[in-house]
Design a protein that fits this description.
About 0% of the residues lie in helices and about 25% in strands. It is mostly beta strands. It has 2 domains: about 30 residues, no CATH class; about 230 residues, no CATH class. The chain has a 5-stranded antiparallel beta sheet with strand order 3-14-5-12-9, with no helix packed on it. Strands 4-13-6-7-8 form a 5-stranded antiparallel beta sheet, with no helix packed on it. Strands 1-2 form a two-stranded antiparallel sheet. The chain is rod-shaped, with a radius of gyration of 27 Å.
Length: about 270
């Protein structure tokens, strides 16, 4: 009994270029033939780093393997008796990979939480900032370090006051994502070296996320959305006319700023 082959259908065949976004060159159509999806983009191995706060666009090049690393920004360090609250670090992202920033430090408060991450193959929480020491001899308080970001920037170092009621500003967190350190202030007659110490809290660090895409998982030529978070601002303490801050450094002090976020994209070619 004679007959002819019917149209190749079912199981998604015949496959078209439109049905496979980002396809290029000859493509097996699933029916024993091929379709031409055009010239493939030239591939040159490389990397691109985004450090300026705000939104950016990354045009995906041809690649064999593409790795994205994202860090959220660190929060700002706290100061005792602050005029306003320290700000949190901004979140950073690449498409659906998101690394949140760390929380701002609180004067006289508990440790500030580091940011969390989602969407990556590896999602790591940012380190917590050290809580403030509420009171005690000056050399026992004020060393409220900022948290460190995984595989990223370290937290700012706290102030160790060892000279009566001397105080100091908290150091800034290191990029990418380190939390700012808390400031240090002291109340009482500094000349007898027994004033009450008041510490600002260290800030939380930005989270970190990373993911590696295989060839074809991101379409060549795609305009990928990139966001880089700004580092949180350390807060300024209140300056007083009383005993607080008498001695070398009148007044209270300023918490360190958080380290900015970062997005790093690296790719290899066949």
């Amino acid at each position: 009994m004679g007959g002819t082959w019917g149209e190749c259908v079912g199981a998604g065949a015949p496959l078209t270029c439109e049905a496979k976004p980002g396809a290029c060159g000859p493509l097996d159509d699933g029916c024993g033939g091929t379709v031409d999806c055009g010239k493939c983009p030239e591939c040159t191995p490389g990397s691109k780093t985004f450090e300026a706060a705000g939104e950016h666009t990354f045009t995906v090049a041809g690649f064999k393997s593409l790795t994205v690393k994202v860090w959220g920004a660190g929060g700002g360090g706290g100061a005792y008796g602050a005029k306003s609250a320290a700000s949190a670090g901004g979140k950073s992202s690449f498409e659906d990979i998101v690394a949140e920033g760390g929380k701002g430090g609180v004067g006289g408060g508990s440790e500030a939480a580091g940011g969390t991450a989602t969407g990556g193959a590896k999602n790591l929480k940012g380190g917590n900032g050290a809580g403030a020491c509420d009171k005690g001899y000056p050399f026992l308080c004020g060393n409220a370090k900022g948290g460190s970001s995984p595989e990223g920037g370290t937290g700012g170092q706290g102030i160790d006051s060892v000279d009566g009621c001397a105080g100091g500003d908290g150091h800034d967190g290191k990029a990418p994502g380190g939390g700012g350190a808390g400031a240090w202030a002291c109340v009482g007659p500094w000349w007898i070296g027994q004033g009450w110490g008041f510490g600002g809290g260290g800030a939380g660090a930005g989270a970190h996320a990373s993911k590696t895409y295989a060839e074809g998982e991101l379409a060549a030529g795609k305009a990928a959305k990139v966001v880089v978070g700004a580092g949180g601002a350390g807060t300024q303490g209140v300056v007083t006319d009383g005993q607080a801050g008498t001695g070398k450094h009148p007044g209270y002090y300023t918490g360190g700023d958080g380290g900015p976020g970062r997005v790093l994209v690296e790719w290899t070619c066949p």
